[in-house]
Amino acid sequence: MKSLNRSPVTRHLLLIVFSLLMLYPVIWWIGASLKTTAEMSSPSIWPSKPIWENYTKGWQFSPEFTFGRFFGNTLMMEFWNVLGGVLTSAIVAYGFARLNFKFRGVFFSILLLTMMLPGQVTIVPQYILYNKLHLMDSYIPLILPHFFGGGAFFIFLLVQFIRGIPRELDEAAKIDGASVYSIFYRIVLPLIKPSLVTVAIFTFLWSWDDFFAQVLYLNSVSKFTVSLALRMYVDQFEIQWGRLLAMSLLSVVPSTILFFIAQKHFVEGIATTGLKG
C-alpha cells in the first residue's frame, strides 16, 4: 500500500525534474539576455548585474525604426498567411474528401507526391516567376502561396479529418435542400474546428520562422520581418549578443501566446486526425 501511495509522488517528482531540465535553455536564455558581451562565456546562468538596456536599446533598433515596426510587419504578413492557409486548405480538402470528380485519386496522389519535394527544388522557379512579375521586395511572394491550398500537408491533414465525419450528415442536409456550399459552411467547417486551429498554428509558426524566403524576397529595411531584423545584430566585426538575445526572446512571445490560447484545440486536432473512420 505504501508503494502505491508513493508512486504518484515519485512520478510528480520525476516530472518536475524533467520539466526543469527542459526549461533550463529558456532560463539560460533569459539570463543571457541581461548579460554584457564579456559575461556571455561565464558559466553562471544569471548575470552579476542585469543589463536591462539590452531590451531598451535593442527595441530602439535605429533612429528611424523601432523593433515594433518589424513586429507589425510580421504580424500583418502572418494574418494573411493564416487566413489564406486555413481557408483554402479547408476548401481543397473538402473537395477531395466529399466531392466525386474525374481523376480525383490521381490528383490527390500528385498532391501527396509534392510533399516529398524539398523546398529548394521549387524556390528557383518561384523566384524567377516573382522577379518577372516585378513582385520583389514585397510581401506578395510570401503571402500568395498560402492562398493556393495552404500546402499539401495541411490538405492531407484536413482530408483525414473530414473523412471521419459521417456522410449521413451531408445526406440529411441535402434532403433539407442544402447545397454543397451550405454543407461545407454549416456542417463541415464547425466540425473540423480543431484541425483548422492546428493548421493555423503550424502556418503561423512555419511562416514566422521562414528566414530563407524572407531574406530572398525582402530588401528594404522598412519591410523587414522579425527574423531579418534579428540578423541585423550580427555583422562581420561584432555580434551584439545582449540585444540579439533580448529581441529574440521577445520574438517568441507571440507564438507562445498563440499556442497557450489554442493548445486545447491543437492537441485535439493532432490526436484525432486519422483516427476516425
TrEMBL record:
InterPro entries, per database record: MetI-like, MetI-like_sf
Gene3D superfamilies (UniProt xref): MetI-like
The protein's name: Carbohydrate ABC transporter permease
Chain ranges of the ABC transmembrane type-1 domain: 71-262
Annotated TM spans: 12-31, 79-97, 106-130, 142-162, 183-205, 242-262
Protein's membrane topology: Multi-pass membrane protein
Main location: membrane
Keywords from the named record: Cell membrane, Membrane, Transmembrane, Transmembrane helix, Transport
Locations listed in the record: Cell membrane
Pfam families: BPD_transp_1
CDD domains: TM_PBP2
Family: Belongs to the binding-protein-dependent transport system permease family.
Lineage, uppermost ranks: Bacteria, Bacillati, Bacillota, Bacilli, Bacillales
Domain of life: Bacteria
